[in-house]
Design goal:
By secondary structure, the chain is an all-alpha fold. Helices cover 84% and strands 0% of the residues.
Length: 280
């Protein structure tokens, strides 16, 4: 079969709509830099950037790789049947949350030490911002693959619509928050993440027969594993911290604790990811 240009307009329309939604997302996600620098100054912007940089470690190194794989996988599943896409989407939620949630909460718990190691003592005030941004990240991870699911269904216009709705809301939230203090700006991110979570799930319920019960059932094992892992870290940190000469040593011990606790708990809970680890 020879290539044809008869359907080119649909390809262009799809590509342009997708690119437009991504452009809006990028502008929206970075608009806080202008607002913070104008209102609070570059020192406060530096603090916020360090906090956001710590949270973005997961998105840069893990989520970006997962989304690149998820897009073609979701599309192939949808071509088989919408039920296959729903099943794969739920499975992806189960897998990504079991890694993301322990990471985010542990990063918030050890934020001061991590910032000290990565950026230096002068940025330690960013730890309080991390403790707020972690709520935004934990909500966002629940819909991080939702855009891929919509695109797989050919609903790129829906993705664009969500971007158009959330961008001005986020900007307005930032402008209002900037009238108060820097932590309020971090809470504005939490608000935007919540709205985005509700919008994406509204359309997934409408287009894919998804439900909040299915969402809960998908992430319930991850919730339990996160609770077990973080609880052990907190208990051991409180009981043993007095015996360590520096916070860095305590941090290293806690890293080992959460890694071991996470591995044990995923096999104890029989999380689906445990089957993947067996093959490593």
């Amino acid at each position: 079969m020879l290539p044809s240009f008869t359907q080119m307009k649909y390809v262009w329309r799809f590509g342009m709509t997708f690119s437009a939604s991504r452009t809006i997302d990028v502008i929206s996600n970075n608009s806080h830099e202008l607002i913070i620098s104008h209102t609070f100054g570059f020192t406060k912007l530096g603090l916020f950037s360090r906090a956001q940089g710590l949270m973005n470690l997961f998105w840069t190194n893990v989520t970006s790789a997962v989304t690149r794989v998820a897009a073609p996988s979701f599309a192939a599943s949808y071509h088989k049947s919408p039920h296959d896409l729903l099943s794969d989407y739920r499975k992806s939620l189960t897998y990504v949350t079991v890694v993301a949630w322990p990471f985010f909460i542990f990063a918030a718990f050890e934020s001061q030490t991590i910032i000290y190691i990565l950026f230096g003592e002068q940025w330690l005030q960013a730890a309080s911002i991390v403790k707020v941004l972690v709520y935004s990240q934990m909500i966002s991870i629940l819909v991080t693959l939702a855009p891929n699911a919509l695109v797989a269904m050919g609903k790129v216009n829906t993705r664009f619509k969500i971007s158009v709705i959330t961008a001005p809301i986020h900007l307005l939230g930032l402008l209002i928050a900037s009238r108060f203090e820097l932590l309020w700006v971090a809470w504005a991110f939490v608000g935007t993440s919540t709205i985005r979570f509700l919008l994406y799930n509204y359309y997934l319920i409408k287009l894919l027969n998804f439900s909040y019960k299915q969402l809960y059932d998908s992430v319930r094992p991850s919730l339990l594993i996160t609770f077990i892992s973080i609880s052990l870290v907190v208990i051991i940190s409180i009981t043993t911290k007095q015996y360590f000469e520096s916070d860095v040593i305590s941090f290293i011990v806690n890293c080992l604790v959460i890694t071991i606790a996470w591995l044990i708990s995923i096999f104890y809970v029989k999380h689906p990811i445990s089957q993947e680890i067996k093959f490593l």
